[in-house]
């Protein structure tokens, strides 16, 4: 994973401001930083989705494939769901750790992992759902 120098600058500025202003402004500083991170992630997702849509249009225009059906579980859908849960993980982790310490943090992350596992399990076809003509030994 590449590091974003802008986010690192924002984090350093937030930490510096926290040292100068004191703990009474900590919530506002953290909220501001998280908003900037979320905006950055949203922009990255939008860019990837536009690129994927353009690639899909090129495939259709060339006649080398068909567009993905709206009911299909695509990579973008799975990636988007995982990204949203990771964005939500930041405040959930802060709330869990802030109120209950390590146990609260572990419970928050267990929930995050559980939701992602359920999402993956729901979308992927199970072996029983495959056609009888398909074989794992072919």
State the shape. flat
**How many helices in DSSP terms?**
4
H/E topology pattern: HHHH
Coarse structural class: mainly alpha
Let me know the number of strands: 0
The residue ranges in which pLDDT falls below 50 over 5 or more consecutive positions are 126-133
Mean pLDDT across all amino acids:
78
- Helix proportion of residues, in percent? over 70%
Strand content: under 5%
Q: What is the terminal-to-terminal distance?
A: 37 Å
Q: Please tell me how large the radius of gyration is.
A: 21 Å
Largest sheet: none
Layout of helices and strands, plus pairs?
Blueprint lengths: L4 H17 L4 H37 L12 H26 L1 H22 L15
Helix pairs in contact: 1-2, 2-3, 3-4
Describe the structure in your own words.
The structure is a single chain. It is flat and about 60 Å long. 74% of the residues lie in helices and 0% in strands. The chain has 138 residues and is mainly α. It has 4 helices and no strands.
């Amino acid at each position: 994973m590449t590091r974003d120098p802008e986010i690192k600058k924002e984090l350093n500025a937030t930490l510096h401001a926290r040292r100068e202003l004191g703990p009474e402004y900590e919530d506002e500083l953290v909220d501001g930083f998280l908003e900037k991170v979320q905006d950055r992630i949203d922009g990255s997702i939008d860019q990837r989705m536009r690129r994927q849509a353009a690639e899909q249009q090129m495939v259709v225009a060339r006649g080398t494939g068909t567009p993905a059906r709206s009911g299909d579980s695509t990579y973008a859908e799975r990636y988007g769901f995982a990204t949203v849960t990771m964005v939500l993980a930041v405040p959930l982790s802060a709330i869990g750790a802030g109120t209950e310490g390590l146990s609260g943090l572990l419970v928050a992350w267990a929930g995050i992992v559980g939701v992602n596992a359920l999402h993956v399990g729901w979308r992927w076809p199970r072996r029983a759902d495959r056609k009888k003509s398909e074989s794992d030994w072919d």
